[in-house]
Structures are given as C-alpha cells and as structure tokens.
Design goal:
The protein is of the alpha+beta class and about 150 residues long. Helices cover about 20% and strands about 15% of the residues. The strands form 2 sheets. A 4-stranded mixed sheet has the order 4-3-5-6, covered by helices on one side. A two-stranded antiparallel ribbon has the order 1-2.
Amino acid sequence: MNRILDIPFTTMDGTTTSLRDLGGSQWLVVNVASACGATPQYEALQHLHATHENLTVVGFPCNQFGAQEPGTHAEICEFTANKYGVKFPLMAKVEVNGTEATPLYQALTKVADADGHSGDIRWNFEKFFIAQDGSVSRFSTRVQPDEISF
C-alpha cells in the first residue's frame, strides 16, 4: 500500500506531485468544496495542518456533488484563504468518482470506513488519513477533522 504515496496528481499550478513529494510523514486527503454545508470544516482542517508537525492536509476541490465547487483555481484559493485562512496545499480540481476519477482517488476509495463503506465517495469533505507506511483510514463527511486521531 506504500505505493499510494507515489501516485502522481496535479497541483493548481499544473505541475505534477505526489503525497510523498509534498513532505510530512502523515497526510489527510480531503475532497473539498466551497459551497457545501460542510465547508466550515476548512477551518478545522487548517488547524490540524498548522498544529500537527508531521501532518500535511491536502485538499482536492471537486464539483461532482451538487455542483458545490464551481470556481476556478484562483477563485477557490482566494475564497479558502480569505474566509478560512487555508494555507494547506490545494490541488487541481478533480473527479473523485466514476471513470474520470483521479488515480489517487481510485486507490483511496478501495478502503472502507468505520461503517464498512468502500467505493464511491458519498459527499464533499470525505477524509482519508494516510500513514507513512501507506496504510489508509477512511472517514465520512460526518466525522469532523478534530475527531480523527493521529
């Protein structure tokens, strides 16, 4: 499962990176949206990113759920920085479900959450904690970022 750390994806500026390349030894990958009832989770995600030394929160904007992330990359960055003080890395907008799902999400969605759900992402702000060894834990939108143990 360590391979998950090396799956390439695209940043907002169009370059390719991976979780390992972003640094840290733990990652919290989240499909994010700016116009969702769960959008206030950005604040807690930023707090985790700032206060857990080896944790890198990585946001993947996605417009697949109720068209709740319609903005451009610049609009997303401006909104999250101004409203929630987001400084954690935001990647290029992606698909997380279906045939166009980015390879990272194709791998992550194979993991089941505490309720036994694996497969498609169900809504915005579903979270995946990835440890340094590549093991993955999945958390539903209902799980608040500060409820996750690192």
